[in-house]
Write a structure and sequence with these properties.
single chain, alpha/beta, 29% helix
Length: 216
């Protein structure tokens, strides 16, 4: 199978796909930096470290270069997302090249009824992609801040959708921030609801300009 199997994580609605965190271009550099969002990456431990999972991740990574990968992903995603039309790219891993992002865009274009979200730290590919093509309306490319810090004002001139990770704080403090949510600055409620998205779909909504996640 060209695509490998899809992921179905407990946190999110619907399905996602993943590749090895070891293959992250920017993430591999950030993992060596204290205070970065990748320093203690979850995708290097737990289920991701199991031999069978690592084998599946490697297969998905290899499939990206297959000439029929786009067509295969369209069929697989369309089949699995019939009940929940929300799909996340990379619960582990990241964009591998400009062509990879173009292929992801082609998949989204072929499946207009499904909403796609791709968080990424590969801003060089995103800049080049946005400069040369049009992003389909059902694809949210969310560029992540590389450091754990208090959220800064969203810079809409650089990227339409961004995200960041705020330092740990009490649930009470985070709950106050969640209550103050707006389109410009949305605080992820997952840590207040068993680590799950539940009804929240902010990350799949292009109108949500900046999403702030709480450090685990």
């Amino acid at each position: 199978m060209i695509t490998g199997s899809l992921s179905n994580t407990s946190k999110m609605p619907g399905y996602s796909t993943s590749t090895p965190a070891q293959a992250c271009i920017t993430g591999s550099k950030l993992r060596k930096i204290e205070g970065s969002v990748c320093e203690k990456c979850y995708a290097f431990k737990g289920n991701y470290a199991r031999p069978n999972v690592r084998k599946a991740l490697a297969k998905r990574l290899a499939g990206i270069s297959h000439p029929r990968w786009v067509d295969a992903m369209v069929v697989v995603i369309q089949h699995h997302c019939r009940k929940c039309p929300h799909f996340r790219w990379h619960d582990s891993g990241d964009i591998q090249s400009l062509q990879h992002l173009r292929d992801i865009s082609a998949i989204a274009t072929a499946l207009p009824a499904i909403k796609f979200w791709i968080p990424t730290r590969e801003r060089q590919f995103v800049k080049r992609f946005l400069a040369t093509g049009t992003c389909p309306p059902n694809l949210v490319i969310q560029v992540s801040d590389p450091l754990i810090r208090e959220p800064r004002r969203h810079d809409s001139q650089s990227f339409s959708n961004t995200s960041g990770v705020a330092p740990r704080m009490s649930k009470a403090a985070w709950r106050r921030r969640v209550k103050e949510n707006c389109r410009a600055l949305h605080h992820c409620p997952a840590s207040l609801q068993d680590g799950q998205c539940k009804k929240c779909r902010a990350c799949w909504d292009r109108r949500t300009k900046h999403v702030v996640f709480l450090q685990h």
